[in-house]
Design a protein that fits this description.
Layout lengths: L2 E6 L5 H11 L4 E6 L3 E6 L3 H10 L7 E4 L2 E4 L5 H11 L10 E8 L9 H16 L2 E2 L6 E7 L3 E7 L26 H10 L9 E5 L5 H8 L3 E5 L6 H4 L4 E4 L13 E6 L5 H10 L4 E12 L5 H11 L4 E7 L7 E8 L1
Parallel strand pairs: 6-7, 6-8, 10-11, 10-13, 11-12, 13-14
Antiparallel strand pairs: 1-3, 1-4, 2-3, 5-9, 8-9, 14-16, 15-16
Helix pairs in contact: 3-4, 5-6, 8-9
The structure holds S-adenosylmethionine.
């Protein structure tokens, strides 16, 4: 039986994810659902095998994947909701009473329905609770029902959050803008923390290269770290009075630190990967062995896989790559998670 899944990437990066999937499933076929970002995957590799492989060796550019086990015809009228309610009511042997189930619904752009994606969730949740005795939730689900609506079809699938590579609908990680937030860039570090299973509070001394205006620094300070921020630009005024922050108003090429001065190095310089990796390499003695590095890599000319290879090679074997991932909050860039050797 052909396995079907829906894959989602950041806009414009579908072809990279497809290249990564093709390596796992030769002969795989793709069908565009949203140009450049959402696509159907058709492969002869069994679903469990695909899910295992995607988790064990996670693609860099595939942000989210969901299984498709049913395709239901829809008319985009409210009658679809009745059809779906009947469908869910009739499911047997699928749910375990008491489990937490999240219904995540997405709709292809431009498709006009008489109901909203949230309306679909609202229609199904009571049936899940009453008929199947599960607990409908939004966060921390045991399992996720993923629904994707196109003009004519509703794609349905159930999976565990880790099988989707993200427990956010479509991998779209939404953080609340906080009062006094210094920059949207902070979302990148928050997402890296979640994605890479890091506990930033477990570090003590961080070097933040390319730190201004200070979103990343502010998060590190909030997590209780001592932060040395390097940037010729100005840090946000709210940060300057923080006794745990030291701002060196310099180019990263003009600063030097004592050996092993830091246990965390972060770098979010929007610059060419070549220049960035040279600057970071020259400061690597300051990161203690076993220390962590989180580095944003700008994707310049479309050669993404090459850029990762060259960047890691430029660290001269001093940083081991644990994971490379294009985060939802990365635009034309991706994020590396590395360990000092
Ligand atoms: C995308 S911003 C960083 C945003 C920051 N992570 C935040 O959360 O607010 C990139 C920063 O890198 C800095 N930068 C670029 N080249 C640099 C260099 N050679 N040395 C130090 N900083 C540099 C720029 O001045 C700019 O402030």
């Amino acid at each position: 039986m052909t396995t079907r899944m829906i894959g989602t990437t950041n806009h414009g990066f579908a072809q990279y994810a497809q290249e990564e999937i093709r390596r796992k499933a030769p002969g795989v076929k793709f069908q565009v659902l949203e140009p450049g970002e959402v696509f159907l995957i058709h492969t002869e590799v069994p679903l469990e095998e695909m899910q295992r492989s995607l988790q064990e060796d996670e693609p860099i550019f595939l942000r989210h994947v969901q299984p498709v086990t049913q395709e239901l015809s829809i008319t985009r009228t409210r009658a679809d909701l009745d059809m779906l309610i009947n469908f869910v009511q009739d499911l047997t042997g699928v749910f375990t009473p008491g489990e937490r189930v999240a219904v995540q619904v997405r709709k292809a752009p431009g498709v006009k329905c008489e109901y909203t994606p949230y309306g679909v969730k609202e229609a199904i949740d009571p049936i899940l609770a009453q008929t199947h005795e599960v607990e409908p939730v939004i966060q921390k689900p045991d399992r996720i029902i993923s629904i994707y609506l196109t003009a004519e079809l509703l794609y349905w699938g159930i999976s565990k959050p880790e099988e989707n590579l993200s427990d956010w609908s479509g991998g779209a990680v939404r953080y609340k803008q906080e009062e006094g937030q210094i920059s949207r860039a902070v979302f990148k570090l928050l997402e890296a923390e979640e994605r890479f299973g890091l506990d930033l509070a477990s570090f003590e001394r961080a070097l933040d290269i390319g730190a201004a205006p200070g979103g990343w620094s502010s998060l590190l300070l909030k997590r209780g770290l001592q932060v040395t921020a390097v940037d010729p630009g100005e840090m946000h005024a709210d940060l300057l009075s923080n006794p745990n922050l030291k701002h060196l108003k310099n180019n990263a090429g003009d600063v030097r630190f004592e050996e092993d001065a830091f246990d965390l190095l972060v770098c979010d310089m929007s610059w060419s990967p070549k220049q960035m990796s040279k600057l970071v390499f020259d400061l690597l003695d300051a990161l203690q062995v076993g220390g962590t590095a989180i580095i944003t890599v700008k994707l310049m000319h479309g050669k993404a896989f090459q850029a990762i290879k060259e960047t890691v090679a430029a660290f001269g074997g001093q940083l081991e790559l644990l994971k490379a991932k294009q985060l939802f909050h990365n635009r034309d860039e991706l994020t590396l998670y590395l360990l000092k050797q």
